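hiii so um. not sure if this is the right channel but i have a protein structure encoded as tokens and i wanna go backwards to a sequence. like what aa goes where. can anyone help
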């Protein structure tokens, strides 16, 4: 059982361990990996084939190219994280190479694409949940499902 200790910290109260001392909980590598993999599997693997299927067999080529691109990005981030071990990901790499202006532009562009990605996640969520809970396609239920998925 976790008891809350009313100590001041940047993120609010700190949970107390079994010995009564305050402990901090951080989002570690396994939790972060599970979070990202859940997003990739939920949207990319389940929604992408459905959206490409209407184009016929060429959609298999598109899936292959998307996979190659994703693997290339993963390797690029792996190499960059070893060469420049800094917080900030793409922002830190662009700032280091091109200066503050382009670093900021890169970070802003990344966040805009993250917003679009979150919208895609909600659309995928609504599509799959409606198959089971809202077969009639009622707009009110679709909105409720979308809000629950956020």
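sure thing!! here u go:
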């Amino acid at each position: 059982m976790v008891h809350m200790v009313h100590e001041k910290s940047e993120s609010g109260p700190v949970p107390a361990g079994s010995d009564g001392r305050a402990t901090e909980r951080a989002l570690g590598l396994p939790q972060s990996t599970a979070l990202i993999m859940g997003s990739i599997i939920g949207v990319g693997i389940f929604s992408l084939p459905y959206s490409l299927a209407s184009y016929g067999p060429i959609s298999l080529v598109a899936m292959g190219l998307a996979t190659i691109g994703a693997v290339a990005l993963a390797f690029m981030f792996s190499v960059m994280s070893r060469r420049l071990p800094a917080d900030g990901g793409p922002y830190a790499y662009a700032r280091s190479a091109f200066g503050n202006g382009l670093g900021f532009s890169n970070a802003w562009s990344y966040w805009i694409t993250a917003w679009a990605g979150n919208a895609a996640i909600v659309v995928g969520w609504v599509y799959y949940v409606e198959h089971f809970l809202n077969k009639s396609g009622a707009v009110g239920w679709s909105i409720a499902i979308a809000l629950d998925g956020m």
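oh and The chain has a mean pLDDT of 77.
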